[in-house]
Amino acid sequence: MEERKHLLTYVEQAFMVFGISIFALSAICAVVGEEAREISTMFALGSEGIPLSTMGQYLLSAVGITALRFVFFTDVLIRRWTLTARTVGMLGTVTVLTGGMAYLFGWFPVDDPVCWVAFLISFGVCFVTAAAFSNKREQAENRQLETALRRMKEE
Fold it and tell me: Are 29 and 50 contacting, i.e. CB atoms less than 8 angstroms apart?
């Protein structure tokens, strides 16, 4: 579980999630923006870009995801869950949150199964990417701590 962190750490993480999400959305927009212009508020500008309202919605989503990470991966609210249970709970909750926002903000027609498949694929890619970045960052931090500990032992 994570140790207690400063508020700025959570802000940093929210913007990391936001950045990865917007990067993925930009790539999708470039590929299918024109075709999706009429069916999704996310692609209202076609392949020309992402509407500001959509960017605000994605920022809200990133803040929600970061808050859920706090809930599931600190011992503040959930104390006795295994890492696997926490991860599954977080993924399920984030999927429900994102699906709810898709419905609320009209990101895609929620009655179209093809749109749900595309959503789940893009969600999966974003999750794997974010997990990879987080893992690399943690490995780098661990290497720094191991180096510092080695230096302290040598002194």
Answer: yes
Q: Are 39 and 108 in contact (CB under 8 A)?
A: yes
d(CA 114, CA 121) in angstroms, rounded, equals: 11
Residue with tokens 């419905």: 103
> CB 28: neighbour CB atoms within 10 A?
19
SS (H, E, C) the chain: CCCCCCHHHHHHHHHHHHHHHHHHHHHHHHHHHHHHCCCCHHHCCHHHCCCHHHHHHHHHHHHHHHHHHHHHHCCCCCCCCCHHHHHHHHHHHHHHHHHHHHHHHCCCCCCCHHHHHHHHHHHHHHHHHHHHHHHHHHHHHHHHHHHHHHHHHHC
Nearest residue to 68 (alpha-carbon basis) of 106, 135, 13, 108: 13
* Structure-token pair, residue 32: 């299918």
Side chain identity at 8, as an amino acid letter? Answer: L
Going by C-alpha positions, the residue among 57, 130, 125, 70 that lies closest to residue 97 is: 57
Single pTM value for the model = 0.73
pLDDT of 20-69, one tens digit each?
A: 889 888 888 888 888 878 888 888 888 888 899 999 999 999 999 999 98
Assigned token pair, 22 = 């917007």
